Batch of 4 targets.
Target 1
Amino acid sequence: MTEPSIQSPTNFPLDEQMEATHKPSKETVMVKQSKRWLWLLLGLLLGSVASLFTLPYLPQVIVNQLHLPTRMVMQPIAPARPTIAKKQVVVTPIVNQQALKELQTSIDTLQHHFSDFPQLKDDMQTLSHDVRALHQTQTDVRTAQKTIETMQLHSRLSWIVHSSSHLPQIRLAWEEIVLLPS
C-alpha cells in the first residue's frame, strides 16, 4: 500500500483499487436484470391467479358493477303435466344462509337505532334554538360595543376641539382614538 503524495491530495491509490474490485461486469448486470424480469413476471402471474380465486367472494354489488361472470346452479324442475317430456331448467344463484342471518341481524339493529331518532331530532331542535339565541346575544353585544366606541370617540373629539385643551391632552386623545377597535 502506498502513501498518498502531498503534491496530489486527491489521488489515493487505495480508492483506485476499491473501484477496480467493486465494478460488476456486464454479465452479472445482465443476469441481475433477467432475474428481476423473471420475478416481475412471476409476481404478475401469481397476482392474477390469486385475483381469479377471490372473485366468488366479492360482494354482489361489485360483481354487478364490474360485469363479472357469476357461478349459477342449475336445477331441473318437475314438469307441470306428466305428458310433457320436456324438462324446464331454472337458474338460481347460490345463497349463503349465514350471510342472510347476519343481514337480518344488522337490519334489526338498524331498526332499533331508528327508534332513537325522535330523541335525536328533539336534541337537534334544542341545539338550533340555542345557536339562534347565541347569535342574537352576539348581535346585541356588537351593537352595545359600537355604541360605547361611538361615545368614546365623541368624548375624545370634544377634548381635541375644546379651546382650553393643552397639547399633551390633545395628543393623548388622538392616541386613544387610534386604539379604538373600529
Target 2
Amino acid sequence: MNKENIISNKRRIRPIDIMIAIIILGSLWGFLSELALNTMAIIKGLPYKGGTAGISIGLGIGIMGIAVGIFRNLSILPKGLPIVLLGIPFIAILSKLLIITILDITSFGKINPYLAILWGGLSLTGIVSIIGNKIHSSNLLRITCGMLAGFLAAGVFYVVGIQIMPCPYLLSFNNMGSFIISHGLVWSLISGILFNTGYLTGTALKKILVKDRVKPLFYYTASILLMISCWAGITFFVASAS
C-alpha cells in the first residue's frame, strides 16, 4: 500500500470508530465464548479434546485477527495496533462479569474460561507487537503466529490455573506435559486457523468501510444493534446456566 492510501486510511479511521470496533469485537468474543460453554454443556458426548476454554481462546484469537486485518495500517494512536488488541479481551471479560454482577450471581465456578480469554488476548498481542508489519506478509506466518499464541495461552492457562484456581478440568491431568499434548496442541491448531481466517475477514471488511460504501447512520445503528444483541445473548446464556 502506498503512502497516499495510508494517509487516506488515517483520515477515515476516527478514534470513535476504533472504540466501537473494540467494544463490538470484545462483546462478540464474550457472546461466542458463552455460546460455546453452553453448547458443550448440552452435547457433553461430543468427541472433542480441548475443553471449552480452548474454544474460547481459539474464537477470541480469530476475532482479534479481524482487528489486525481492519487496522493493519493503524498509526493514529501512540502504541498503534497493540492498544486495540489489548482492549478486545478486556471488553470480553468485562461484558461477562458485568452481567454476572447485574444478575447477582455469586458463583465463579467458571472463572478459568475468563483466564483463558485473558491469556489468549495477551499472548496474541505480544506476538503481533514483536512481529510488527511482517504479520501482513503471508498466510503461513499468520497461522504460525496464531498457533504460537494459542500454545502460549494454553501453557500459561495451565500453570496459573493449577496454582491459583484449580478446577476438576485441570486437575484431571497428571502434569503440564499431558495437558499440552492432549489439549494444548488442539488449542494451538484452532487458534492458528481462526487467526488467519479472522485476518482475511478483517481485510475484506476494511475495503468496505474505507471506501465509504457504508453510510455513517447505518454503520452506527448496526454497531449499536450488534452490541445489544451480543450482550443480550450473554445475559441469556449466563442466566440459563446459573
Target 3
Amino acid sequence: GFLATEQRCGSEAVPLAERAVAIARGADDLRALAWALLSLGNSLSAVGRFEDARTHLEEALALAEQTGQRPAAELAEHVLAGCYYETDNRPEAMRRAEHCIISARASGNLRALSGALVSQGWMKEDVGDYTSAMDLFQEALECTRQAGDFSFIAGVLRTIGHCLFIQGEFEQARTYFEDSLALGDPVQHEPEAWLASTLMGLSNLHFELGDYTTARALLDKALRSSAAPNDVTDWVSYTMLQAGNLARAEDDRCAALRCFHKALGAALSIGDVIRCLEAMAASLDDHGETHEAVVMLGSADKARGGTGRVVHPYQRQRYAQQLEALKVALGQAAFAGAWAEGVALPVEEAKSRALEAAAALLSANDLGR
C-alpha cells in the first residue's frame, strides 16, 4: 500500500491498505494495525479523501503512541499535517507540523522531519513568507541528504525549485529542477511520480518564459512518465491546468475550456480551486461570459484573502492586467457589481457554477467530444 501510494497508483493503494487493516484487526495486533491504518490514511490522502484519511490517521497516531511506536506516530502526524492543510485548517496543520518537527528532531526520524518541514514551508510560501519557506526547505533538503533517500532528495529539490519559480527567479529554479531530474533516473530507483512532477515544474517554467513548444513537450513527457496520473486528483488538476494554459496561449480556446473544466472538476484543495477558478475565468471571458469571469475572480479573491494566501510575484503583473482588461470590457459599474457578487459567493459554490457554465458552453458549441 505504501509503495503503490508513492507510485501514484491510488486505485491499487487504497484496497491494499484496507486489506492490511482488516488483517491486523482480525489478528488483534495493535502494533501492526497502527502501521496499516497509517498506510490507509496515507493512500486516502493521496487520492484527495482528506476527511477519511484524517479519521484513520488519528487512530493510527493513538495506537502508535499506545504501543510505543514513535516512528509510526511521527509519520502519522506528518501526514495529518498535510491533511489539515489541504482541508484548510491551517492552525491545526501548523500545530501538527511543529509538534512533528520537535519530536522527529529529538528522535532522529529524518523522513518525518523532512516531511513536516516541507509542510510548514508550504504554509509559509502560501502567505508570501518566502524567506522562512526557503529556510525550512533547505533544512528539509539537508535531512534527506543525511538519510540518503534519492526520491526524497529529488522531491525537496523540486520543492525548492517551485518556491524560486513562484518568486520569478526562473534561472535559479531551473537549476533545482534539473538537479532533481538528475536524481530521477530510474537507475537511481527514483519513483516515476517524482520525475513526472519535476517535469511539470520545468513545463511551467518554460511556459512563463514564452517557450510553449518546450513547455508542451515537457508536459507530454510528464504525462508519459507518471505511473498512473488518473488515479490522483491533484495530478489531474495540475496537468490539465497546464494543458489549458498552453492551449489558450496557442489560441485554441475550445481545448483550453475543456482542459480547465477537467482541472477544476478534479481540484479538491482550496489552493487548487482558487488557481483553477482564475484560469477558468480567463477562458469564460474568451467565450463571451465576461460577467461570469469577474464573479469567479471575486470569489477566488475572497477565498484567497480568507486563508491568508497571496498572489505570487510571478503572477502579479498578469493578474493585474487581467483585472484591468475586464474592467474595460464591462465598465467600472458592471465590473464592481459582478465582483461584489463573486465576493458573496462561497468558493465551492463558485466552483459548481463555473463547471456548469463551462459545461453549457461545451455542449452548445459541441466542444466536449
Target 4
Amino acid sequence: MKKLQVVFATAGALLCASTLAVALHLAFAFPKTVALWSDEGRALSSFQNLLVNLCALCTSFGLIIFPALLLGVAACIAWGILAGRKT
C-alpha cells in the first residue's frame, strides 16, 4: 500500500508540473505566435482557435493558475515523502 501511494504521489507531481510548464508556455511564449497569426490575417483552424483561447485563459487567470499548480506539485511531493517514510 505504501508503494502505491508513492507511485500516485509521483504521478500527481509529474502531472501538476507538466501542466504548469504548459500553462507557463501558453502565458508567456505563445502570445508571440498568436501575434504572428493575427498579422497573417488568415482564418484559423479550430485547433488554433482553441490554443488562442487557452493562451488568453492562462494570461488572464495566471495569478490563480500558477500558484495552484505549484501548490499541487508541493503537496504531491510532500505526500510522496510522507508515504515513503511510513513503516
